[in-house]
């Protein structure tokens, strides 16, 4: 699918991987709606790229539907969805403070996994109602999982479970939507330079980057965005999770 002229939705688009993805899609000629809980940051990104900022809680069905309705009203129906919204959190199953609070586990799964599915199902319903493009495609969905889905570290049970769920739903989602010409892909990034990692001391960042086999550095959000753009444009990519991690395999801790 050609990016130019298409309407695109990017959740978690106010910062990090989502913001860079929104910027690249806009630079390639897409009409981009930046969906994020942080309305001020979303507005800053949207203003920078000539896009549309929309407040959105991905885990809330009404919030997502309102955002999609607003985006459609301004940009027309979206044929591209990139789900980058998500949260982290570290907590062992049990320890000196007792068992992990169930609410902590539920919150991460609710936002990362259920939130991703929530936006996907609503966007897909709109895509499947559109007419096909010249190549038969109606839409492309790119979700964000993590190498933690495969190499979850100690304290990452909730995060790994949520990202593992996204990885696992990729193929059945692609099969569900194949009859409509809507592709579903996922990217599993490794250690990337995001606002969260930028808060760490420089020596810690250097150490983390040095753990990557090659290149020995943290990933750049622009590299994630470039892969998103390639997925959108390469019609034969479907139903697959692509690790983007410099061959990193995470140790237990």
From TrEMBL:
Residues 6-224 form the Ketoreductase domain. Coiled coil: none annotated. Keywords: Oxidoreductase. Gene3D superfamilies: NAD(P)-binding Rossmann-like Domain. PROSITE patterns: ADH_SHORT (PS00061). This is NAD(P)-dependent dehydrogenase (Short-subunit alcohol dehydrogenase family). One of its GO terms (molecular function) is oxidoreductase activity. Belongs to the short-chain dehydrogenases/reductases (SDR) family.
